[in-house]
């Protein structure tokens, strides 16, 4: 024993630190890290085989998988779209506009994973903001915060809630109810929305990336091949017109309006072809002299008439775990693998005036891509697409999905059946009324995220099994002079700020067993600690990597890191106080 910890205890601490470093400093996928943690703890003997493998069959892991399917069904039923389109009104000032977007976002995120809610609301809110005369950057960050706070209001709203509930069940043999966090969560949601409205002047005014891409003449140039040009009949590669000084060929537009993008090296050149290049315009214009090209009298490349010309242009942002970070398109096979062309790059709401394929990419960069197969699911783990998702609207399915969701909640709240059972039953019902197909069900389950989740559950088990929770609990209670309230303040403060730099599920797995151990050692209510920790690890407002929704709006909002700190730090502090206040009232120590 060293400082109250066994060898395996220190090994568990080392695993936790290593995981944090790997997530922050490397581009290793989260699922690989999660699987590695389980395998390592099993091989070194820190966890018994049965306990390590039980992480995969944990009730919370299975429930998260079912919730992926349920969320997809609710999206494809049109319920999310209906709520978004009907609950956004016509506010005349920013305060009312903030309420109009935060209310539906928080309601939906209490029952649906925040990712699909954000994906569907993002494009809608941006367009709605412009029609109402508001800057989107004033609304997207509050949208992210509202989805985060709304998720705390039910047990299924966020994965950290399920992690804590799973650990509580393992430690006590009792289960937390569906509405265990509802009253404290609603109080913190109201406080959070009030803070945002009160501090609305701190919300940044930033130019959105699409605004920088509207004037295509600023970053593209169109040249035409005259009918008597010597290169007619040659391939693009032979004519040396693919990658040129200052830029690259985005597309060829033929006389019959055929659009060729991306352009293969063996594509033959025809008379009157429009060659669209992106990059440094002055350098590209030298092609007029070197290759006998002429300026286009009529510009055919325009981001405003994409649909009319059947052009597939979409914007996507690079998140903080993308393998594209630190790389430039010229050095990797990304464009060839996905059949796309990088047209332009924006950073912090401003287009970067360099050759797109030579730009070293950073987190939050927004890419304007062109291609014929721009399917967001094909870019999973590399890019987040934030254009609106078009979904079929079927009033019958929308009503059916609403009834099924209400029945699921009612069955869980009244105790007629366990939460997992009611969720699985709801999923089957969604299939029966065809809110989603078998193929959509298969694609709905995010196996990578489930592996990350299983790794977090494993850490929680290791913290308890190796004695780390007991050692840390003894240290905190000694520091707090055995005061339950001070102990609660210490652990919630640590959870709130550590979560800003790691995943909330990991933070929940670290602090939940410690909180339960403190409660048991002091002879107080462990539910108080569990609920307070649930809210604390979800209170991620001060960094763009603190939560998935924060990362989601980083690029589309044209935000900078300081924008999150300016309003997020006061929110962290105030909500920490509100959390402890309301939780100790609802669940007295």
Model regions low in confidence, pLDDT < 50 over at least 5 residues: 305-309
Task: Please state the overall shape, judged from the principal axes of the Cα atoms.
Answer: elongated
Structural class: alpha+beta
Helix content: 40-55%
Question: Could you give a short account of the major beta sheet?
Answer: 6 strands, antiparallel
Describe this structure in words.
With 589 residues, this protein is an alpha+beta fold. Helix content is 53%, strand content 8%. The chain contains 24 helices and 11 strands. Strands 1, 2, 3, 4, 5 and 6 form a 6-stranded antiparallel beta sheet that branches. Helix 4 (59-76) runs parallel beside helix 16 (419-432) and helix 8 (137-151) runs antiparallel to helix 23 (548-554). The protein is elongated and about 90 Å long.
Short description:
With 589 residues, the protein is of the alpha+beta class. The protein contains 24 helices and 11 strands.
Keywords:
single chain, five-stranded antiparallel sheet, alpha+beta, 24 helices, 589 residues
Map the helices and strands.
Blueprint lengths: L6 H19 L4 H14 L5 H5 L5 H18 L2 H9 L6 H16 L4 H19 L4 H15 L7 H14 L9 H17 L10 H5 L6 E5 L18 E2 L2 E7 L5 E2 L13 E6 L1 H4 L2 H4 L3 E2 L17 E5 L16 H5 L1 E8 L2 E2 L14 E6 L12 E2 L9 H19 L5 H14 L5 H7 L2 H19 L2 H12 L4 H15 L5 H19 L3 H13 L9 H7 L6 H26 L3
Antiparallel strand pairs: 1-5, 1-6, 2-3, 3-4, 3-5, 7-10, 7-11, 8-9, 8-10
């Amino acid at each position: 024993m060293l400082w109250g910890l066994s060898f395996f205890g220190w090994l568990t601490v080392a695993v936790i630190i290593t995981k944090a470093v790997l997530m922050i400093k490397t581009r290793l996928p989260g699922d690989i890290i999660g699987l590695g943690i389980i395998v390592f703890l099993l091989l070194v003997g820190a966890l018994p085989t049965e306990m390590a493998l039980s992480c995969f069959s944990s009730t919370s892991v299975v429930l998260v998988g079912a919730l992926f399917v349920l969320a997809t069904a609710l999206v494809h039923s049109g319920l999310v779209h209906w709520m978004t389109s009907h609950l956004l009104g016509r506010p005349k000032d920013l305060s009312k506009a903030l309420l109009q977007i935060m209310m539906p976002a928080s309601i939906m995120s209490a029952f649906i994973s925040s990712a699909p809610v954000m994906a569907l609301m993002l494009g809608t809110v941006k367009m709605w903001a412009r029609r109402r005369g508001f800057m989107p950057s004033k609304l997207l960050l509050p949208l992210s915060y509202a989805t985060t706070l709304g998720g705390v209001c039910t047990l299924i709203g966020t994965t950290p809630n399920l992690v804590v509930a799973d650990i509580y069940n393992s430690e006590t043999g009792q289960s937390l109810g569906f509405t265990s966090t509802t009253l404290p969560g609603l109080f913190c949601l109201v406080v959070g929305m009030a803070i945002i409205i009160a501090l609305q002047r701190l919300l940044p005014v930033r130019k959105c990336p699409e605004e920088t891409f509207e004037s295509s003449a600023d970053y593209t140039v169109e040249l035409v091949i005259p009918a008597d040009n010597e290169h007619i009949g040659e391939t693009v590669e032979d004519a040396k017109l693919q990658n040129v000084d200052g830029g690259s060929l985005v597309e060829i537009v033929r006389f019959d309006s055929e659009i060729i993008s991306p352009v293969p090296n063996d594509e033959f050149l025809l008379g009157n072809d429009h060659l669209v290049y992106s990059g440094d315009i002055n350098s590209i214009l030298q092609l007029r002299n070197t290759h006998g090209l002429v300026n286009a009298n009529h510009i055919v490349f325009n981001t405003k008439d994409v649909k009319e010309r059947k052009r597939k242009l979409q914007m996507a942002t690079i998140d903080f775990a993308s393998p594209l970070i630190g790389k430039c398109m010229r050095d990797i096979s990304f464009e060839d693998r996905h059949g796309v062309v990088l047209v332009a790059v924006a950073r912090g709401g401003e287009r970067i005036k360099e050759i797109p394929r030579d730009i070293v990419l950073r987190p939050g960069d927004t890419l304007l891509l062109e291609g014929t197969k721009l399917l967001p699911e094909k870019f999973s783990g590399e890019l987040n697409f934030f254009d609106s998702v078009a979904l079929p609207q079927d009033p019958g399915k929308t009503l059916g999905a609403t009834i099924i969701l209400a029945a699921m909640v009612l069955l869980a709240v009244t105790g007629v059946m366990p939460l997992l059972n009611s969720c699985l039953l709801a999923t089957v019902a969604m299939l029966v009324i065809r809110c989603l197909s078998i193929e959509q069900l298969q694609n709905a389950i995010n196996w990578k995220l489930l592996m990350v989740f299983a790794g977090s559950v494993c850490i929680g088990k290791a913290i308890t099994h190796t004695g780390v929770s007991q050692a840390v609990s003894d240290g905190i209670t000694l520091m707090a002079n055995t005061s339950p309230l001070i102990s609660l303040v210490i652990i919630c403060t640590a959870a709130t700020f550590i979560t800003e730099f790691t995943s909330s599920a990991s933070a929940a797995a670290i602090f939940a067993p410690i909180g339960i151990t403190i409660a048991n050692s002091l002879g107080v209510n462990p539910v108080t600690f569990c609920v307070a920790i649930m809210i604390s690890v979800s209170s991620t407002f001060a960094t763009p990597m603190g939560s998935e929704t924060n990362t989601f709006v980083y690029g589309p909002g044209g935000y900078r890191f300081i924008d999150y700190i300016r309003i997020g730090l006061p929110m962290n502090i105030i909500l920490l106080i509100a959390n402890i206040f309301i939780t100790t009232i609802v669940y007295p120590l």
